[in-house]
Amino acid sequence: MNVLTCDIGGTRTKLGIVSGGRVLEQSILPSNSKQGLARLLPVIKAEWLRQLETHGLRLNDCKGVGISFPSLIDYKSGRILDSYGKFDDAMDIDLRAWSRAELRLPLVIENDARMACIGEWQYGVGRGSENLVMVTLGTGLGAAVIMEGRVLRGVHGQAGVLGGHMTVRYGGRACTCGNVGCAEAEASSFSLLDLATAHPGFLNSPLSNESQIDFASVFRHAVAGDPCAMALRDHNLLVWSSLAVSLIHAYDPELLIFGGGIMASADVILPAIREYVGRHAHTPWGQVRIEASALGDLSALVAAEWLLDEQSIHL
Ligand SMILES: [Zn+2]
Q1: 257 CA distance to ligand 1 centroid (A)?
Q2: Is residue 122 part of a domain?
Q3: Are 286 and 138 in a shared domain?
Q4: Which domain does 160 fall in, by range?
Q5: Which residues of 235-253 are buried (b: 16+ CB within 10 A; e: fewer)?
Q6: Of 109, 157, 300, 307, which one is least surrounded by beta carbons within 10 A?
């Protein structure tokens, strides 16, 4: 049956209607996160209603709502536990009450990386696997774990989703989470500009002429032989590779999936991580498969229906 779904990001919000792993319709809206979540909700509702009308559907034709959000979530109550400087009002909003009042539908919400992981597990590259870990490489580093055919959550819902906050460098860079030397603080879009400008060769690098320094530009200039870009590329690949080994040691998956915007450069990233993991992970039984997300941006959206079924006891 149809489910209304929404992947709220710091910059962009993707939303659509999904059914049986298929996306019937999708749109992308600006999140305007500084203006708060309360102002975004009516915009999301209006877009869902427009999408339904396009397909000749009504709210009665939907069984619920699934939301993906970049935060720790109390999935039992559906409350958002931290705003991380975006959507400052998010912790005060009862999304389930909003959905009941505005849409007359039950609502489930989960961490965005966990949603992406569920989507890949049910409909993407993880289909048929019972033990998998997903890492999303983007502004921050998201992570999530499926273990023995179940979503790993822990007592407070934190298990697995803090995978990007494993310490990869003792005494390293300060992280937004309060720790130092987290993988996210050492190698993400969030930290890339600082890392680039701190490099002694930066002013002589073509990167210093880029209007925006992102991983695409770093990988491009590294291929052309720029020493600063090569050092940045190698540093980031080593951080993600060390993180991969730690996640494999912690969770014993058969499959490790990498997704997120930076994976546009999967042709550079995956071979480097596979090679490092092959040398350093302790897996005497064989090799962990390391693959790119199959669904990309859609993985979090398609997870909504599965989550709604899983969480029905709490609704
Ligand atoms: Zn951290």
Answers
A1: 20
A2: no
A3: yes
A4: 129-293
A5: ebbbbbbbbbbbbbeebeb
A6: 157
